[in-house]
Amino acid sequence: MAMLNQILNNPDVVIVLVGALVSVASSLLGCFLILRKASMLSDAISHAILLGIVLTFLLTQNQNTPLFVLGAALTGLLTVILTESLAQSGRVKYDAAIGIVYPFFFALAVLLINLFARNVHLDTDAVLLGEIGFSWLDTTSLGALEVPTSLLKMSFVTLLNLAFILLFYKELKLSTFDRALSAALGFSPFILHYALLSLLSLTSVVAFDAVGAVLLVAFVIIPPSAAYLMTDSLWRMLVIAGVVGVGSSLLGYLSALALDVSIGGMMALWTAFFLALAFLFSPRYGLISRYYQGLREKERNAKRMLLVHLFNHENDPESHQENAVSALKHHLRWDKAHIRNLIMQGLDEGLIHKNPNDQLFLTPKGRLLAQEVLAPWEYSAKL
């Protein structure tokens, strides 16, 4: 118990843990939002909840009421409902609907603060930027333990989000990739969608006090985006997004200490760094991987062109001239190094063989591949 108290009283550990929990809770939901092309709803909800907080305060005149969570969560859900309704009306597109609803709610909240709560500590800057560096100061007593409130709340929300995804994984997966089939099988894509966004609203409410809206949106969108580039498997995407979020929290905090800059800002910056790595080095979609895939495809096409050239001329009376190594540069317009490399590949793969006079001939395997390359063209010619 004494050791646990010592850990919970360590500001460094608490800050990293809060950041890690926010990142995991956010990225778990963010993976499904990315796949459903609704990721910017996180930005809308995280800004719109300020209106719920303000209205709750104006109704209760109490800054410590637990109704803040309920009011903010309901406002977030109302944001989603209005956005969906506007989009389904057909008069505006989905992204435009988001751009209409949440700026209105956020602006209304700021206006109400200036009119009726000017002297009350409802800081709009704190809502946007948060201050995770102070998350260890506010504590809640649990027996002999003094647990940071943000850590306690985020632990609950993270476990709730994880439990929801584990319980409804198949249903969420099906409704994400095929809503029609999901509805036909008796599942309700509508209910799952709003349950997912209700959890996002709750996560935003609980997290914004510690990390602010900007870092929350970064955690919802960027780690899942990096994971999306790294894999085509949904469960791997969830795991990678969580790892990226936790890594960004740890490295962001260490970097902020070293550079004496904003902790939340550095955490968000590290998520962007991981996204850049995925954008460059993703096995399938990364720029570097695709560059080398293009080179390999170019080599494959060149090899096929060589086989087709040999096949077209192998029965010609002048095949000894046409299929000579020295003639390839003239016919195919390749440099000597490229020709030499292709011939070595063809010999190694058993597609061609070369006689002592430097003439090239197709092997049965090479002839079959050349015929397969030409078959679609021959079929088109007949049509």
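(ticket continues) Second input and output from the same batch:
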Amino acid sequence: MKPIKVLVVYALKNKQYIKKIKLKDKVSVKEAIIFSKILDLIKININNNNVGIYGEIVNLKDLVNNGDRIEIYRPLLVNPRELRRRKMLLKNKK
């Protein structure tokens, strides 16, 4: 069987962590993240963060496919809806 190649990515504001890995079998997203050892670099708990493949939120139990880009998302500091509301209030005050 041909190896499965995937990328595991975590991006901070000023730095990106990208790990290229090869897997022998189809594994879950969680197993691929653990196998990549990216968690040793970023010290986060993936059970508390959303993960996705090419921008689509996925479950940690979903299987990865060849060529997938697994993205670990940072927690939101501000709700985007609240941020837009604040911007509109500031704009209307001018």
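Agent notes: The first strand starts at residue 4 and ends at 11. The beta strands are 4-11, 16-23, 51-53, 56-58, 69-72. Closing as not reproducible unless the customer responds.
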